[in-house]
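B., you asked whether I could sanity-check this one before it goes into the benchmark set. Here's the sequence:
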Amino acid sequence: MFEQWLYRRLITSPKFHYYVRIVHALMNDLPPPNPPNMVNGFKNRTILNKKIIYKPTVIQRFNAYFKIWRIEMTDTFLFKK
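And here's what the prediction gave me:
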């Protein structure tokens, strides 16, 4: 009951959605979102003031590709784990 209340509170929070949009914009190299109208001065305290660009290394990209490839091969040829 308490966990459901916390979950509902988080999902309906404008600040939570704003931070999710910030992370989404930073990861996908999109323009930063506008802050919620109900919170004054909120933009000055966010991570938008810092220029953070996520660039995965070659090893991270290869690891992600290999994980996706392995899942696809498992699903395609029905290999047992």
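One thing to flag: The chain has a mean pLDDT of 78. Otherwise nothing jumped out at me.
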